[in-house]
Design goal:
There is one protein chain. The model has no long low-confidence stretch (mean pLDDT 94). The radius of gyration is 16 Å and the shape is globular. Strands 1, 2, 3, 4, 5, 6, 7, 8, 9, 10 and 11 form an 11-stranded antiparallel sheet that branches. The chain is built from no helices and 11 strands. With 169 residues, the chain is mostly beta strands. The two termini are 26 Å apart.
């Protein structure tokens, strides 16, 4: 049976301002994670951004412990842009049972996002995430940088993750 996805679809014009994200990105060096309620850790991550011609970018993020290589978080979802302006939404499902909608603005090749809505499975691990702020920035050297800040039931908003990627395809 033929694959139902058209891998040669033209990029929808609504996504042209985000075309710099498309492709596969792999970390050069392990990223760093920390938060007051967990032991600091290092992780590797691959990001894959793709499209099928619709006005939406599909994405999959896969992170692994840098030392043990065991899987950590996985996120998948979609990125949408509001037509005729720089408003962007990320719709994310995580393997931890958290579902997020993050919204924000695109300024050049910098995407600033923050929590718009959160939902979680009824038996999600505590403390519960209450807010996320995420920044993607394409640096002048061509590397993609991601910083994620988080607040939980018992901790204020603070940086949780930071990592830099190089485009691999």
């Amino acid at each position: 049976m033929a694959c139902p996805f058209n891998h040669t679809a033209e990029l929808n014009p609504a996504l042209l301002p985000l075309d710099w994200l498309l492709g596969t990105w792999e970390c050069d060096e392990p990223g760093e994670g920390c938060f007051p309620t967990i032991k600091p850790f290092r992780y590797t991550e691959t990001l894959h951004f793709s499209h099928v011609g619709q006005p939406v970018i599909n994405f999959m993020f896969n992170a692994f412990n840098a030392e043990s290589k065991k899987p950590l978080h996985r996120e998948c979802g979609f990125i949408r842009m509001q037509p005729q302006n720089n408003r962007v939404a990320l719709i994310i499902a995580q393997n931890s049972g958290l579902v997020e909608i993050e919204e924000g603005e695109l300024t050049g090749q910098r995407l600033n996002l923050q929590t718009h809505a959160l939902a979680r499975i009824s038996f999600a691990k505590e403390p519960h995430v209450q807010q996320i702020c995420r920044v993607f920035q394409l640096r002048p050297d061509g590397k993609l940088e991601q910083t994620v800040s988080m607040a939980t039931d018992n901790q204020p908003l603070m940086q949780h993750l930071h990592i830099t990627y190089r485009r691999s395809s």
